[in-house]
């Protein structure tokens, strides 16, 4: 079996223990949703103040009621904000 993956999208269970399941795909989808909303790549993102990756940053903003700050400026200008906020919430459910 050939294993091909991008490290920014693999679940922690797979990265640490080599266990792959349907939950791994769900995790990857959540990462992808957050990347689309933010306009940033998980692998390239780093928050200066907290040393968070994109997922940690999204979770921190969500807990503080500030998820709207995750949205890219171009998305914010052309979207239905409640739908994007719901997408962020759903993506975080895949992660946590």
UniProtKB/TrEMBL annotation:
Keywords: ATP-binding, Kinase, Nucleotide-binding, Receptor, Serine/threonine-protein kinase, Transferase
One of the record's GO molecular function terms: protein serine/threonine kinase activity
Gene3D superfamilies (UniProt xref): Transferase(Phosphotransferase) domain 1
Protein origin, superkingdom: Eukaryota
Alphabetical list of SUPFAM superfamilies matching this protein: Protein kinase-like (PK-like)
Pfam assignment, any one: PK_Tyr_Ser-Thr
Official protein name in the record: Putative tyrosine-protein kinase, neurotrophic receptor
